[in-house]
Q: What sequence folds into this?
């Protein structure tokens, strides 16, 4: 009851303070009235704020203007007990607290995925899901048992049904985080070596997608990247990629590609990754989009003040199909509030160059107005392409 009262008071006050605080991003393209706009944003971990909704003050109107906003919720919505207690294997980190749900409600972030390494422990997972349910936030990736953890989040906007599935390839304690037949936790996709994927996990992902496919128009699949093995997660797993300090975090591990391809082959329409605290490359596979890591959005966790890279991804659905996918780089200001960057700006250009550098050479990326386009199947794009040079306007 106290939480619901606090939510109502803070949400009401924030609506007054931040109404019109930022303009809606000037996206490109012309679409029909029935077109559905979906935004996918980076990891969310909002804490240490008197008003959690301030984290999206700069981009909140852009989020509210979309038909649907999805994100990975990185952190348990439970009262923090202290940086040495909340996540024993990650000293200095803490749970955001139940007030974090205020930012989701205020700025149209719904649904969310909860399968990540911050889903610790089982009791906190259940309480987080209770807070989300109480506030009308649909979720996937976690539940009171493995069946619920693999249950999709399904939402409908403008007559389009979208289903979401989320998994984690990184965790700390099997017996405190992974869902079982009888115990709560999260859904996993396991890779011990950064190359191969556990066969049983891969088949379960395929089956999840097969079951979801006939129920929805669009299937979105994401996972929390492994980002190198950990001694706690896989005792004895030793590979060069296990040393985070020795490798370029912008470069995806081979298993990420295997996961994305198997998900799309099973019937997904869109795949993306999160959890590496930075951005990675993009790919078009069988005419479907993959973004291997989209970095941070609002992220207040101590120690990551300088890890600001992220993307806001926009997908347009027309005729119950994804017809255009584009993205805009983001960063955070000195108050740790997330904001979007013009592609023409120095910082925006730097981030887009990173995406270009680590993406396959055959991916055609072009700047269109205030965004970078990676997939465009609209009639206008088809017409323009037929009259343009073979590779069109590529990003340098």
A:
């Amino acid at each position: 009851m106290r939480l619901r009262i606090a939510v109502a008071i803070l949400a009401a006050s924030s609506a007054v303070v931040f109404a019109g605080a930022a303009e809606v991003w000037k996206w490109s393209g012309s679409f029909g009235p029935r077109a559905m706009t979906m935004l996918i944003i980076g990891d969310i971990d909002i804490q240490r704020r008197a008003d959690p909704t301030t984290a999206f003050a700069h981009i909140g109107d852009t989020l509210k203007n979309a038909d649907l906003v999805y994100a990975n919720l990185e952190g348990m919505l439970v009262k923090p007990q202290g940086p040495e207690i909340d996540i024993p294997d990650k000293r200095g980190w803490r749970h955001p607290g139940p007030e974090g749900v205020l930012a989701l409600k205020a700025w149209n972030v719904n649904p969310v995925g909860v399968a990540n390494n911050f889903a610790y422990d089982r009791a906190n997972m259940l309480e987080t899901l209770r807070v989300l349910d109480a506030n009308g936030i649909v979720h996937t990736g976690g539940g009171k048992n493995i069946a619920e953890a693999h249950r999709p989040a399904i939402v409908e906007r403008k007559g389009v049904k979208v289903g979401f599935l989320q998994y984690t390839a990184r965790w700390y304690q099997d017996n405190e985080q992974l869902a079982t037949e009888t115990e709560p936790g999260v859904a996993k996709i396991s890779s011990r070596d950064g190359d191969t994927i556990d066969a049983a996990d891969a088949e379960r992902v395929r089956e999840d997608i097969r079951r979801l496919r006939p129920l929805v128009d669009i299937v979105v699949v994401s996972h929390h990247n492994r980002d190198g093995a950990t001694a706690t997660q896989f005792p004895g797993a030793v590979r060069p990629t296990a040393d985070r300090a020795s490798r370029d975090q912008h470069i995806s591990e081979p298993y990420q590609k295997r996961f994305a391809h198997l998900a799309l082959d099973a019937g997904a329409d869109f795949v993306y990754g999160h959890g590496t605290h930075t951005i990675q490359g993009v790919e078009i596979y069988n005419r479907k989009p993959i973004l291997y890591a989209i970095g941070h959005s609002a992220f207040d966790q101590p120690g990551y003040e300088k890890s600001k890279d992220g993307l806001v991804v926009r997908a347009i659905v027309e005729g119950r199909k994804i017809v255009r996918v584009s993205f805009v780089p983001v960063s955070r200001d000195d108050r740790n509030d997330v904001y979007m960057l013009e592609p023409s700006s120095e910082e925006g250009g730097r981030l887009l160059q990173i995406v270009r550098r680590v993406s396959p050479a055959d991916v055609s990326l072009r700047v269109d107005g205030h965004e970078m386009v990676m997939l465009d199947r609209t009639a206008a794009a088809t017409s323009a392409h037929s009259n343009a040079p073979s590779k069109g306007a590529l990003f340098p």
User: Anything to note?
Assistant: The chain is about 25% helix and 25% strand. The chain has one domain: 2-386. Residues 1-21, 386-396 have pLDDT under 50 and may be disordered.
